[in-house]
Structure formats: C-alpha cells, structure tokens
# Entry
Amino acid sequence: MNVLIYLVPMALVLGFTGLAAFLWSLRNGQYDDVQGAAVRVLSDDDLRS
Amino acid sequence: MSETIDLSVFVKRQDDGTAHLDLAVEGIDCAACIDEIEDGLERLPGIVDARLNYTNHRLSVQWRDGEIAPSAVVEELRRLGYRAHPFQSRLVEEEETRRAQWLLKCLAVAGFASMNIMLLAVSVWSGNATDITQETRDFFHWLSALIALPTVAYAGQPFIQSALGALRNRRTNMDVPIVIGIMLALVMSVVETINHAEHTYFDSVVMLLFFLLCGRYLDQAMRRKTRAVAGNLAALKAEVAHRIGETGEVVLVPTAALDAGDRVLVRPGERIAVDGVVLSGASEIDESLVTGETARKAATTGGRVYAGSLNYNGTLTLQVTAAGKGTLLDEVERLLENAAAAKSRYVQLADRVARAYAPVVHLAAALTAIVWIATGATVHDAIITAVAVLIITCPCALALAVPVVQVVASGALFRAGVFLNAGDALERLATADTIVFDKTGTLTLPDMRVVNAGGIAPDLLEAAARLGLSSHHPLAAAVAQEARDRRPFDGAVEEAGQGVRAIVDGLEMRLGSPAFCGATTLAHDAVRERADASLIAFSWGERRAILLVRQALRPDAIAVVKSLREQGLDCRILSGDRPEAVAPIAQALGIDMWRGGCNPAEKIEALDALKAEGRKVLMVGDGLNDAPALAAAHVSLSPISAADLTQAQADAVFLGDKLEPVLDTVEISRRANRLMQQNLKIALVYNLIAVPLAFLGYVTPLVAALAMSGSSTIVTLNALRARGRSAPAEPAAPPQELAVQGA
# Structure
C-alpha cells in the first residue's frame, strides 16, 4: 500500500487546485453576469467593423 | 426632451484620468442588444470601455475625462432605442453582494472538503468490509481530520456566528442545534481517530455543512436578486427637475443631485419631483398620488407641495425642503414609526419549527446516552450513539425545506411581475384572509383616461386627441392618449388657463374649458351625470363634445376582485378620496365594505379593528398616505407607480397596468406555503424513521451519509413544484411593462 504515500497527496493537491481555480474565478468576477456570458459566446466580435 | 441633463453627480473620476458612470438600461430583451449597445458606445470618441451586464441590465461606461459629456452617452443610447438612467449602487445591495460572495466561498470550501473526505471515507467503508489494515485506516482518518477541522473553522462561520448571536440574545435558532451537532461530532471523531476506532463522522459533518450552506446561499441569492431589481427600478423611476442656479439659469438635473434649499422650476403639466415650499407662482395641483384625493388643490406662495403631485396650469418656483419636514410627511413618519414598533416581529415558519425542534433533539440525544449507560453499555459507546442521534437529526432537510421553496416561488412571482421585498413575505401572504385596497392608483390606474370615449363620434375624438398632443395640461394629455395618429396639428396655439386651438382645413378646433369652447350648457348636463369626473370640452366648427376624464379602473380589476372573493378573501376599500368618488368604484367591483375620506391614522385604526376581529390583512396601496397602513398590515403590496416611501414599506411590488399580479401573488404564495409545510412534514417523517435507528445504534457513518443526502434530495425535488404547472408563459413581460411605466 506504499503507493498511497504519493497518491493521496496527489489527490489532495488536485482538489486544492480545483478549489483555488474556483476562488480565483469568483474573485475575477466570472460569476457577475452569468446570463451575459451565455449569449456573448454567440456574438461575432471578430467580424467587428 | 431636447434639453440635456447634467449628470455630473453620478460620474466617478478615477486617478488614471478616466471617468466612470453606471447606468441602468431599459429595453434590453435579446442577446443582440449587448453588441448593439457596446459597439454603439465604443464608436463615440473618448469612450474607453462599455460593458453591459446582461444579468442585471446595468451598463458600466468609462471614458477619458473631458472628451465627452456623460449626457452624450445617455443620448446615444436613446438614439439606439434604449432608455438609460444613472444608477447609484445602494449600500444594502453592496452588503448583500459581499455576503453572497462570502457564502459562495464557504460553499466552495465545504464542497471541496466533502468530496475529498468522501473519497477517503468510501475507501474506509469498503476496506472495513474487506481487508483494510489498521495503519491505513488511521492514516485515512487523520487525513480526513486534517481536511475537516480547517473546513469547519472556515465554512462553519456563517452558522457559528449566527448561533452565537442568537445565544447572546438568549434566543435559540436553527443554527444552535446545528453548531452543537457539528462540534460534538467533530470532537468525537477526533477522539475516535486517536483511539484507532473503525468509525468516524468527518464525512457526515462536512457534507452536512455543504447542504446547509446550499440552503443559506439560495436564500441569500433570492434576496439579492430582489435587491438588484429594486435598485434598477429606483434608477428607472429617478426623476429630473429644473434647478434654478445662482445666476438664474435653468439646468435639468436628476433629483438625486438636488440639495435642500435649492430652487426648482415646475412647469405646467409636470410632475413635481421634490418636496418643497412654493416661493412664487400659483397653480392647481393634483395630489392623488400623495393623499388619494382626486380633487385638485390650489398651490399658492408659502404652501407646501409633495413629490409625486401633478402640476396643472401655472408655473411654480419651489424651494426644496429636506424630506420629512412637511406636515403630511411628519404625520406619515410618526405613524410609520408607531406601526413598525407595534408590529411584533413576525416569526418565520422555519424559526418556529427550530424553536420546538432544538430541545427535542437534545433531549433525545441525552436520553439515548442515559438509556445506553443504564442498559450496561460503556460510556464510550453511549456517547458515540448519542452523537449519532445528533448528527442524524441535524436539520439538514429542514434547513433546505424552506429556502428552496422560497427561491422557486419568488422566481414564479418574478415571472408574474411581482418582486418580493421581504423574504418572509411569502408565508404572510399565504395566510392573509382579508384584502384592503386603496382606491386611487391601486384599483384605478395612476393616469387619467377619457371615460366616455364610446359615446363620442370617432372622428371627433381623434381630432380632439391629436389637438391634445399640443397641450401640456394634464387633462389634455389624458385626451391625447386616445390619439391613433400621434402627429400634432401644425400651428396649434396654447392659451394659458383656457385651452389649445388650431385651424385645420379652414375650421377652428378648440380643446379646453367649456367656456373656451362655447359648450357651457353641454357641460352642465354632463356634470349632473358624472359628478366624479373632470371635464374638458372640444369644439370643431359647429360640433361640440364634452369629454369626461377620470382615473379609470385597472382593466381587469372587476375580474380579479371576483376571483379573489372566490378564493375566500374578503375584499374591502379604504380610500383617502371623497366618499362620492369611492362609491361608484366600490359598486362596479361589487364591494360592500368601503370607506372614503380616510386620513392615514384612520386607515390604521380600520386595520387595527380588522386585526382585533382576528383577520390577517393584506393591504394593497400606493399613496404616501398608505405607507403607515402598509407597514401596519399583516402583509402589503404596492404597484410600481407608488410613492417611494410607500414602496419601501410594501412587502412586495407589482408591475404593469393590471391588477392580476395581486391574484397571482396570493395563488403562488399559498402554493408555496403548502409546499413548505409539506417539506417540513417530510423532514419530520425522515426523523421519525432515523431517530429510532440511531437510538438503537444502527447508524454508521454510511447510513448517516445516505439518509442526509436522500432527505435533502427529496425536499429539494418537492420544492421545485412551487413553480406551478407551467402556466401559459408570458415571455419577459417585465421589461416592456417597465417601458410603459417609465413613459
């Protein structure tokens, strides 16, 4: 079962990465306009004149 | 409006030489609006950035200071077809946003922790059934403890703070048993880990925290959504006034930019935007939005006028007074304070349940420990079983049962055009058995309409209406609403205090006082017929007509009142208007119990009398004079056209010209209340099954995990039924109706 010695910390690190990513996105205002984000993806802003 | 508004008070200047303005935008109904607005604005010179928040319809614009005037931004938006209003975020809303973010962070931490601990716990459970070694299990338990302890310390804060707050005030709330349960389970699990035991409850504790935080966050999200809408509405309603500067020049400014002592010019036909004293000028004003009285009142030098009054025929110069200084306002504020103090804080359903629940749970746990010791078990086993009882009874489903229903129901109300101001209003709305309506502006529309349009030759009415477009007089404006062709006649001349006239195809048309139009005899007859309406006469060559203008009933008022009565609600009218104006309305609606001529104190007396009879009153009103009554009533509603102070007192605000939202509100809140009680019963049944199991010592961490997630899922699914059988969807009614309101 020695494999656990590095598997478990790895699982925790991955979990922490997810948490950190979420907290970053929260602070970055990614959830301020959820409806807008859903429709903005459809706009052709690369064709802007 | 050709004048430009001075918006400088709303502009925030930043250190890097840019200026920033927040706007609430009306008329956004599709995704294309985003590009149209942002691209349109960015094409203006000097604009650095324009970003529209599609969720709450707010636009944030930045430009290099001095290169463009803020009013040009608003003007450009108007050209694009959107009405925009400067927006100042309110303190309450910012506070709510901060709290929501905090709860979301706690939720994220609890979610992360519960997933990782569950990963370890499942390994232990399956290992216990097979061949896990002591060392591996201990290692997993210690890891769980390492994650769970900091998680509870961080993500448990909302509950710990609230529980401590309640205990400090010598009350208990739902959070007290939660915190006790969590703490005991945590301490026991650590002790068990040290003792190399088979079972620990770290996973239950953190999962419990996660579910509870979900309920808390949903509750918060509902309140925040309401606040955001209320903030937008406040901005959309924001009025403008003509301020007279030091040197006598007149500038159009938002009322928010006015200070006490400023002088303001009010032209004929304008709504007065501020409270003030008349410095000069004389006019007649309509205070129906303020007092409910539909007869006009003379305003003379030294007299007081209130925001919301409509100025008729003269120009007035006002001095702005600070709010709360007027005689009427003083009276209203005093009554408001009394009403708020007299109304003992309503105890929410969930809190009522929690008060009964906490002692029972703790008693059950204590009893378990005693019985186990008495029957010869070790103290260690007895305590472990008692803690299992505490964990399994932790009001997980209970904490979700109410907020989830509230969120779903407030969403349904939102679609029906009703915004809740208070979270607990749903419960109070559901229990109301008597509805008291105000008349002016509530049962009737806030604007005036021609009531005898059907009795006038169509071409005559159309001509009168088109001529009315050229007048500022409110009666003429009411007539003008009938116009199908919205182009005014050329060369129309307004004669102050008389009316408006124009020569069309060689024939003279006149719209104004009966004497001005030579229709005095006709007017006499009309007055005898309809004493409660205002008259305006129209002449076209030799043809004469008398138009009766009055605040008409809301289009569906009769049907709504009938349905409300069918639902078992007792409908009544309490109006500040003259009894002879109230009588015909009451008759049309078939309401026998009505009173006219009530001042604010009398309205409260009437409500108190109803309360003494044991009735729960839903008060629907809009005037400033209704504000104390709204605060005193069991629960209250007001239309969006209501005075600001009144709206602040109402538990919910509804949009649009129809009275139907009142009916929807009653139906949705009753359905929601039924579901809340159903959910609480489900939670109770769950406890009735789970507690005996825990008492007998059958609850292992695995059983606890299954029971908690199972019951939470069931109440959440049940709560979704509060949406109702998908009623014929009225697509996005609010934005359009807002436009009507703002116009």
